[in-house]
Amino acid sequence: MTRPLSDPPGKGPAHASSAAVAANEETASPLVANLRPAARAAPDSGIVEVMNYGRDRPGMIPLWAGEGDLATPDFICAAATKSLAEGETFYTWQRGIPPLREALSRYHERLYQRRLPSERFFVTGSGMQAIQIAIAAVAGAGDEVLIPSPAWPNCAAATGLAGASAVEVPMRFSDKAGWQLDLDRLFAAAGPATKAIFLNSPSNPTGWTATQDELKAVLAFARKRGLWIIADEVYNRFYFAGERAPSFYDVAGEDDPIIFVNTFSKNWAMTGWRIGWIGAPAVLGRVIENLIQYSTSGVAVFMQRAATVAVEEGEAFLQLQVERAREGRRIICEALAASPRVRFAWPDGAFYLFFSIRGAEETAKLGLRLVDEANIGVAPGTAFGTGGEAFMRLCFARKAEDLAEAGRRLTRWLAD
Ligand SMILES: Cc1ncc(COP(=O)(O)O)c(C=O)c1O
Question: Which domains does the chain have, with CATH numbers?
Answer without folding.
Answer: 35-71+317-415 (3.90.1150.10), 77-313 (3.40.640.10)
